[in-house]
Design brief:
Length: 154
């Protein structure tokens, strides 16, 4: 029997998750930054997108929209089993923001996702995930997370 999205989010909300390395939420295992860069350049497998969806509880279609992959292109990527290097880089950017938010919320995935999908005054009333669509926006979200970690509320 299939679980509803709500049931999946409740399960995710109960667990505490820690990501040991950048890209871990994608199932990426790179021993170094240069190895990670190489994987980005070759393009991540489609499964990396599934992994982020599984870890976060955010639907793959929403993640694809955030990283700029239209529905029809998403279907082609699923068939091919691979993302382009540009899509992989954008997916890594979003996963990094997700991982940092999970760290901010001490491993509480549900709280992190709620924060990531809620408008934040410090981001011009945009949600952190929407803001992370661009590199500049993702850096600003990471800066905000850093300020919150250190108790500097803005």
């Amino acid at each position: 029997m299939n679980q509803s999205v709500t049931e999946k989010r409740e399960m995710i909300g109960r667990r505490v998750t820690r990501f040991k390395a950048r890209g871990a939420s994608l199932g990426i295992t790179a021993a170094s930054t240069s190895a990670l860069i190489s994987q980005v350049q070759h393009g991540f497998s489609f499964n990396s997108l599934r992994q982020l969806g599984s870890h976060s509880g955010v639907p793959i279609s929403m993640i694809a929209s955030i990283i700029g992959i239209p529905e029809r292109t998403l279907a082609r990527r699923k068939t091919a089993g691979k993302l382009t290097s540009e899509e992989s880089e954008r997916l890594l950017r979003v996963s990094t923001v997700f991982e940092k938010a999970v760290e901010l919320f001490e491993g509480n995935v549900a709280a992190a996702v709620k924060w990531l999908t809620t408008s934040q005054k410090a981001l011009g009333n945009n949600s952190p995930l929407a803001y992370a669509r661009t590199e500049l926006g993702a850096r600003e979200v990471e800066n905000l997370i850093g300020r919150l970690e250190h108790g500097v509320f803005s």
